[in-house]
């Protein structure tokens, strides 16, 4: 199972929105994944196969060694789907 | 780690949007003033404590304007313990857009301010809002709305 972390500053808004969309997208694609929303502070030191975050969080994610997908438009399912599926394909 | 429970009843947009927290064509000079005005509607409606407005600004000072979630749209919020009385959502549309300093999505003319009481109660409303904002036709109707009443019917329909 793929482990995906969605990130935002507090873990209530943006990361939750990303999780809700990704749950739907990955279910449609038949991909089994665990998706956890995190706030930036708590995520430090955690592991995930893939991190999905808003584009302006890039600077905060430089120390994360795993794969990161950055989303410009967080309500655009097409952008989220294309970027995340492309990243998962490389796994 | 954040919670992941979906079992508890969550509130839809209809349950958290009140007419007193919606305003169209608001004039502001800066993003800080936009936060004040959107947060001010929640404060006046008795849905948040005064400190929550400052907390929403501090979130942007501390972590950057990542809450500008889509072109022209910001979804402001802070943490429940920073002064949310009831799960709530305000929306102001701006007469003149302002910049939040986002790398892609400035300038902003739709300012949402959300208050969550925990990790779960606002999830259905958040999902409905995200679906709505992903629909360009709906978004253009929200931008074109001339009053709080119009915004109300767009958000709850």
Features:
heterodimer, A: 91 residues, alpha/beta, Rossmann fold, four-stranded parallel beta sheet, 3 helices, 35% helix, B: 157 residues, Mannitol-specific EII, Chain A, five-stranded mixed beta sheet, 6 helices, 5 strands, 38% helix, 24% strand, globular, disordered N terminus
Question: Which SSEs are present, and which pair or pack?
Answer:
The complex is a heterodimer of chains A (91) and B (157).
Chain A lengths: L1 E7 L5 H15 L4 E7 H4 L6 E5 L12 E5 L5 H13 L2
Parallel strand pairs in A: 1-2, 1-3, 3-4
Chain B lengths: L12 H4 E10 L4 H14 L6 H13 L4 E3 L2 E5 L10 E11 L9 E8 L7 H11 L2 H9 L3 H9 L1
Parallel strand pairs in B: 1-4, 3-5
Antiparallel strand pairs in B: 2-3, 4-5
> Low-confidence segments of chain A, ≥5 residues, pLDDT <50?
none
Distance between the termini of chain A: 12 Å
Which CATH top level class of chain B fits? Alpha Beta
CATH second-level architecture of chain B: 3-Layer(aba) Sandwich
Number of helices of chain A: 3
How much β-strand is present in the residues of chain A? Answer: 25-35%
Number of structural units classed as domains of chain B: 1
Shape of chain A: globular
What is the residue-averaged pLDDT of chain A? 93
The CATH topology of chain B comes to Mannitol-specific EII, Chain A
Write the H/E string of chain B, N to C. HEHHEEEEHHH
How does the overall form of chain B come out from the CA principal axes?
Answer: globular
CATH superfamily of chain B: Mannitol-specific EII, Chain A
State the largest interface: A-B, 31 and 34 residues
Subunit arrangement of the protein: heterodimer
CATH architecture of chain A: 3-Layer(aba) Sandwich
Largest sheet, strands/sense/barrel of chain A = 4 strands, parallel
Which class of secondary structure composition applies to the elements of chain A? alpha/beta
Number of strands of chain A: 4
Number of helices of chain B: 6
């Amino acid at each position: 199972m793929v482990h995906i972390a969605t990130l935002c500053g507090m873990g209530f808004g943006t990361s939750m929105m990303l999780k809700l969309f990704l749950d739907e997208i990955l279910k449609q694609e038949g991909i089994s994944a665990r998706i956890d929303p995190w706030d930036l502070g708590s995520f430090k030191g955690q592991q995930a196969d893939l991190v999905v975050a808003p584009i302006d969080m890039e600077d905060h994610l430089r120390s994360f060694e795993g794969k990161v997908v950055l989303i410009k438009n967080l309500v655009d399912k097409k952008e989220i789907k294309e970027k995340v599926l492309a990243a998962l394909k490389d796994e | 780690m954040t919670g992941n429970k979906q079992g508890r009843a969550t509130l839809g947009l209809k349950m958290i949007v009140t007419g007193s927290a919606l305003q169209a064509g608001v004039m502001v000079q800066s993003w800080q003033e936009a936060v004040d005005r959107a947060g001010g509607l929640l404060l006046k409606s008795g849905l948040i404590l005064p400190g929550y407005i400052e907390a929403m600004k501090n979130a942007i000072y501390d972590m950057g304007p990542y809450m500008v979630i889509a072109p022209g749209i910001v979804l402001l919020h802070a943490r429940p313990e920073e002064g949310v009385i009831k799960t709530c959502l305000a929306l102001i549309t701006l007469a003149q857009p302002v910049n939040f300093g986002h790398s892609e999505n400035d300038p902003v003319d739709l300012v949402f301010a959300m208050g969550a009481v925990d990790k779960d109660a606002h999830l259905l409303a958040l999902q409905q809002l995200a679906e709505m904002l992903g629909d360009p036709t709906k978004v253009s109707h929200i931008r074109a709305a001339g009053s709080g009443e119009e915004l109300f019917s767009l958000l709850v329909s």
